[in-house]
Putative membrane protein (Roseiarcus fermentans), 191 residues
Amino acid sequence: MGKERMTAFTDGVIAVIITIMVLDLKAPESADWSALSKLLPTFLSYVLSFLYVAIYWNNHHHLLAACERVSGGVLWANMHLLFWLSLIPFTTAWLAENHFEPVPTLLYGASLFAPALAYAILARTLIGVQGRESLLANALGAGVKEIASLALYGFGAAFALWAPAVSLATYVAVALLWLVPDRRIERTMTR
């Protein structure tokens, strides 16, 4: 099977996810700086979540650029990823509405952990279809970056109930780790 339809569908779903998130940004009711400052938690939550969704979109693009074909299992692994990504607008809104309180921070961390796990599953499923000696398999290797991200999400979520600021800092750190599209794939493709 070709990868074009899966890519197009993923692009559409991610566009809808971003649209849903931006709809939670409401204009303040008054025209002064204090009204705008009250929206800071909502804006910061949106920025972080937008960044995460953009990171997934960029890295998904790189992942599929290194592939020649997909299978039914890949299609389901991709849907699994999209399911978890589709929950990010909800957890973002709850986090923002409750000003980074412990339980919403914990759930937000879980909503970041789940797509990271789903992305790792998608990558391994794609490697299974492409083959162990494929460009993708050579580029991703053992998946150290993915494993480190999952561990950091777990660390961040563990601190959410006691120190939400530590959790949020951890979530930002993981985003920074993935900010540049996966160079492993770029390096392997340019060889």
Residues 4-190 form one domain. Residues 21 and 89 are 5 Å apart (CA to CA). The longest helix spans residues 102-130. The chain has one domain: 4-190.
